[in-house]
Amino acid sequence: MNLHHTDVRPLATAAAGAPSAAVKQRTLSAIEGVRQLPPRLPAPAPAKRTGRVLRRRAGRFVPVACLAAAAFLAGLAAWQYEQSEQSAQRARQAYERLDAVSGLLAAPDARAAHGRAANGALMTVVASGLRNEAFLTAADLPAPAPGKTYQLWLDIDGGMRPAGFINGDGTVPIHGGPATASAVGLTVEPAGGSSRPTTDPLLLMALPV
User: Around Cβ 187, how many Cβ atoms within 10 Å?
Assistant: First the structure.
């Protein structure tokens, strides 16, 4: 069998030759008219699945947020209620004390006495034997030391009996039947008071009854 060998060098040379100017122009014109593809981006998750994931995640937090908000509002309302109740109670006490003092001052036998305590505080006592009532008003009374309180006493038949407390400027009733007492005293006692004086009196003033 005879094989005919063909020399491929002329073909290779022809393939490697430079293109003509007309071919080059047509190629460039064709490239300019080709629409470019958009950049490749990761495919987005399906909208339904994304929505379900967001709702599922949000669903875990919504009850917690609602509970936290409800607890905060409940605590705030309780604090406001407590504050308003305390303020209302203080106001009621102040009005009741004012009414009591006004009634005492209106008594026909009401008398006042003034004195100065050893710590410099000014004291005024208004008393009525007919009403068996007395009030003490303090001014410039220093705050008691921590764990201490100012205690009032009535001198009845030579014995000192507890008659209440005062811890700052203001007016307080003198308890214990002032119509039967001859004097009112003031001492510094442990917080909560004592059954009998444990310190020398800062004040011992005759009752004006």
Answer: 21
Give the separation between CA 154 and CA 204, rounded to whole angstroms: 9
Q: In 3D, which of 154, 172, 155 has the Cα closest to residue 163?
A: 154
Note whether 135 and 172 are within 8 A (CB).
yes
The answer to whether the Cα torsion of 172, 173, 179, 185 is positive or negative is negative
Task: Decide: 183 and 123 in contact? Cβ < 8 Å.
Answer: no
Spatial separation of the C-alpha atoms in residues 144 and 168, rounded to whole Å: 8
Give 63's Cβ-side CA count (13 Å radius): 4
Does an H or E element contain 101, and which?
Answer: helix 47-105
Count Cβ neighbours within 10 Å for each residue of 11-50 and write b for 16 or more, e otherwise: eeeeeeeeeeeeeeeeeeeeeeeeeeeeeeeeeeeeeeee
> Containing H/E element for 100?
helix 47-105
pLDDT tens per residue across span 101-151: 788 888 999 999 999 999 999 999 999 999 999 999 999 999 999 999 999
| CA-wise closest residue to 202 among 145, 141, 159 | 141
